[in-house]
Amino acid sequence: MKIEECAAMYSAYTGRHKLRNQCLHLLCLTTGLRIHEALSIRVSDVLQNRQVVQALQVQRGKMKQAAQGRTILLPAQTREAIRLQIDWLLQYGHLGPDQFLFRSQLGDRPMQVAEAWKIFNDAANKAGLRRDLGTLGTHCWRKTFATEIFCAAVERMQAGERIDPMREVARALGHADMKNTEKYLPVDPEIAFKNMQMLEARHSYALS
Q1: Which of 35-44, 99-108, 160-169 has the lowest mean pLDDT?
Q2: pTM of the predicted structure, to 2 decimals
Q3: Which of 30, 51, 104, 197 is deepest in the core (most CB within 10 A)?
Q4: Which residues contact 166 (CB under 8 A, 6 or more apart)?
């Protein structure tokens, strides 16, 4: 998706679960998490000492064909969206360390992938996105993230940094096999920080 489409979808979320849905939108767009990874996050994963963590630890068991877990830095607007969602859970009496961050509107359980898919498509339709239903879905968040990381890496390479853009994408996505997206490589903390800064700047619409 283009950044303008991301912004339009962000503004299209409405209703009682607006904050939850905006939080899911930003989290997936700025971290590249697979939808099932995002939906498995509990409040205790993102809240420590009453503060939203700056780095999310994703365990190997939650990652598809991953050789090891990974650490994902959270941009400022994503941390703020998480804080607002946690405040909402507290306000409505749903907050607890074992509570899933993305609580289903059908009860005390995590949102299901089918629910997330419907939320995504409803917002996409409201935002005026018109595409083949076979290509428009929650995986667009992850694909958009990958594209943004690749473009940023190309710019950095053109500026003189000795990096491989495809490897940067593989690292950011946590891929384990370079035959598909390149062999998994641990993320350099400095590179990860630069990527996070780029994502903060690109998604500045959420800070207004």
Answers
A1: 160-169
A2: 0.82
A3: 30
A4: 150, 181, 182
